[in-house]
Amino acid sequence: MQLRIDRSDPLPLAEQVAAEIRRAISEGEAAPGDRLPLAKDLAAVMGVNKNTVFRALHLLRDEGLLEFRRGHGITVSGTPERSALISQVRDLVRTARRNGYKKSELIAMIEAVR
Question: pLDDT for 44-57, tens place per residue?
Fold first, then answer.
């Protein structure tokens, strides 16, 4: 994988790392089922701290793009499209909560959309 970050970019390093991994997946450099290199190796290649890489990997796991399995490492489990959809769902849930809607009300709204 070709992973690069730009230290002059105001985007936090962990988000840049996550974006580079997303790009690599979307361009087919890593496909569902593929194992990612170790975090320490990614950190060395990108010139960042290992903890920065871990933060990025956790972001991608929360998006449904990566899966962490003890003894199997970190594997690609989703697609960029699924990741984008999960991100939009999180935004929807956050907006609904901020506006006082309960989970059941949000589900009813979603089910009403055809």
Answer: 999 999 999 999 99
Q: Is residue 9's pLDDT more than 70?
A: yes
SS3 54: helix
Whether 25 contacts 64, CB under 8 Å:
no
Q: What is the pLDDT of residues 64-94, one digit of tens each?
A: 889 998 888 999 987 777 777 777 888 899 9
For residue 70, count other CB atoms closer than 10 A to its CB. Answer: 5
Length of the chain: 114
* Helix (H) / strand (E) containing 99: none
What is the C-alpha separation between 82 and 110, in angstroms, rounded? 18
- Give residue 1's pLDDT: 66
Cross-strand pairs, 74: 68
| Domains present along the chain, CATH in parentheses | 13-78 (1.10.10.10), 82-112 (no CATH)
Categorise residue 47: left if φ over 0, alpha if ψ from -120 to 50, beta otherwise: left
3-state class (DSSP) for residue 8? coil
